[in-house]
Fold each of these.
Amino acid sequence: MTTIWRNALTLIGATTLTFGVAHAQSPELSDPPVIEGETVGDHGSHRLRMGIGLAKSSPQYLSSQYFGEILEQRTEGRITLNVFPNSQLGDDVQMLEMLQTGTLDMTYPSSSATTGYVQALAVFDLPFLLPSREAAVAVMQSDVAQGMLDAFEGTGLKALAFSENGYRQLSNSARPVETPEDVAGLDVRGLSVRTMENPVHLAIWQALGANPTPMAFGELFSAMEQGVVDGQENPWSTILTSNFHEVQDYGTETRHVYTPFIMMLSERTWDRMAPEYQELVLEAARQSAAYEIQLSAEYDDWSRDQLEERGMQITRLDDEQLAAFQEAVQPVYTEWAPRIGEELISDIQQIVEDSSN
Ligand code: TK8
């Protein structure tokens, strides 16, 4: 295992103590694939800076480090990558703007933060569209999805590859949630739920009777800590690695949306690179994205179980309870399917169906 991995895993392998109980900080994770391929000739040097939203223990950070390892090894150090985690350099929307102005080379937003540039990506925000990780990966690897990455051309953003943010789960600090009525509150007020700054997510939580509040990811922990919002929704691994369980008592396994990440490079940086480097960057992005999906899968259920071990009360929905959530969000399709495109949605649904055959 390379030095950087020993250091990274040693760092995240450190246990955390909760009331004296030691908890592992990460599951047994697969090593990254061995870096193979020819050394790319000398076409100058690039010191790349990348900002991400998640923590150093997240699949997003670990796979970004692997991406940097590939570039460094395959160019004998002529291309290096420095990854800044924890929304240090800004949130998804701000960092995308920094790529457009050239003040930052790379970032790794949720697709939901990019629908202002490529509206078709809103298809991924439709609730309960992707029934399994296999189906989601088939969609992300399809020509339809590649067309969405290509559609960023001219925005100042070079979209390199899709990977997995994952299935979103509800957490909150007010009460256990088993039904949409628990979200809306019958004799109590509806939950105030932070959403990404994305109109489809806003519509989902309005349909469920919540009071949705769009907010940057970097502001979320303190907003929950101060009671500005009751809850939020993110994959279990994000809830764990961002320590949301410290301010959230209840979780509900809704799996209401599967969100991709998109690895992004500034077009200004891309245009300064020789074609040989561009080819390597694309290849390395795809390799690290595949590894990120593997890590995310290894983190998913393990994170949920860790959250329970650390005191979060997690509700698993039975088929009937899940059906109630799916029924409650149908108005989102009525409103958004025509705006996103019925044909695109049926193309995606066909890929989903083919992936299960
Ligand atoms: C991290 C975000 C985050 C997303 C959100 O940069 O904002 O809730 O799910 O993972 O992209």
Amino acid sequence: MSLPKRPKSAAERKARVIRILSALNERYPGATCALHHNNAWQLLVATILSAQCTDERVNKVTPGLFRKYPAIEDFAAASQQELARDIHSTGFFNNKAKSIIGAARTILNDFHGEIPRDLEALLRVPGAARKTANVVLGTAFGIASGVVVDTHVTRISRRLDLTRESSPVKIERDLMKALPRENWILFSHQIIHFGREICIARKPKCPICPMTGFCYSEDRVPV
Ligand code: SF4
């Protein structure tokens, strides 16, 4: 199998990025966050719960959780032990319960009960590392603070040669350079769908992939 040629010039690289984005837009035009939520606080909680857990599992837990703790104040006043039991099935429940209660108290005490809308401030909230903060700012507020880098974005950005890095911080930095800012939010949602459906970790479905014309990844399977 002969692979498509690598772009040589900056102009060719830019044109290739546009083809990647067009393919994603065509296939996943309305991609959005899979975590169910009604407001920014609920999205923050759901994102904390989603660490090392599937979105499907989180979506099973959150409806009951938000019925039991309807407001940020309810989480701030929760017993860590009891909250850990409530979120047990999402894994790492002690750490997650501690983060959620800490986040609720910080938002009430330091931010007048409002989720901060800038990255630096949001990073001060317990449980809101860079990926979580980017999810909340992008999905809840439409603020393109960065690019969400999860396991799908990591794998596929490398396969598509948008980065050669392996640490999320460096991958995000490369993606912020490679992609137009207006694509930062949608790109991650689209890649997560693409990673679940086509460019899966083992045996990617290259024969049905819309990127075959310009993907020269060594992970490619013959078309
Ligand atoms: Fe992934 Fe294969 Fe598509 Fe390349 S051609 S992006 S490896 S599914």
